[in-house]
Amino acid sequence: MRAARLAAALLASVLLAAGCSAPPLPGDAVALSAHAVDLGPPERTADGVGRLAFRGAVALSSPDVRFGGYSALQVSSDGDRLIALSDKGHVLRARLRHESGSLTGVDDAAIGALAGPGGAPVAGTRAHDAEALTRDGADLVAGFEGPARLWRYAGGALATTPAVIPLPAAAARLPGNRSVEAVAALGVGRFLVLAEAPPATGRPSAWIGGASGWRAATYARTGLFVPVDAAMAANGDVIVLERRFTWAGGLASRLARIPAAQLAGDALRPEELALIEPPLATENFEGLALRPGPGGETLIYLISDDNFHPMQRTLLALFALAP
What is the pTM of this model? Predict the structure, then answer.
């Protein structure tokens, strides 16, 4: 079995090196509609959104009842494929389409199962609420709330039994629906974990570490914004997606950057990159993925969680941060 896995991995490496398309990913093929949408009035996005350039957005829909609720996102380094995890424990895989550097479409979609310890699908159980997805080497690591968990999927195989990465006790005690929300792999088994719940007096709201141990940190918040996802850029900085909701003002999103040097300390003070608020589209953006662009820029993908509600949309948006 080990030899077979090694042979498969070597074959995949050869195909990718030769520029061949990867084979279809597992799951049931589903119909998926994608149409381009404006983030807002062209005059508000033509010169960028904050420090970011807007590179297109598409609204996604599917008649499949498993579609929706996406809070976790990964995009392949070549921009060809996406993986998204839903609040209900399903995995969406699809192909991305770009033209002249802009996101123009999504197709070739499949929806499959996300497995838990023991290998059984988590859909339909209390363990289904995936909130983060990060890549650590060849593995994918998913973060969950209610209760807080980190699961490692060897080789990125999300339908196989994951290994449990122990979390610090303080993180495990956080409120079920406001616990582990953002997880960014920092390399070699190290992670940054951010909690959505506001820190209580004297308690941490962030942790850096992994299976060998954790250290607590603080994450400086701006107003009512809370962290909902994070990912490390090629230069070691961490980009954080934050969300704000008020009954009076509705939804807003904020993108911020933690400089790499701060990760060695215990005080994280993110700097704002962009604010997405009316009149820009203000869907419930919860998933974030990064990849390097051809010109040295950092490409930032966002996906919104529609909460399986007909009045909300699943949007996939692309931005670029200049080097």
Answer: 0.90
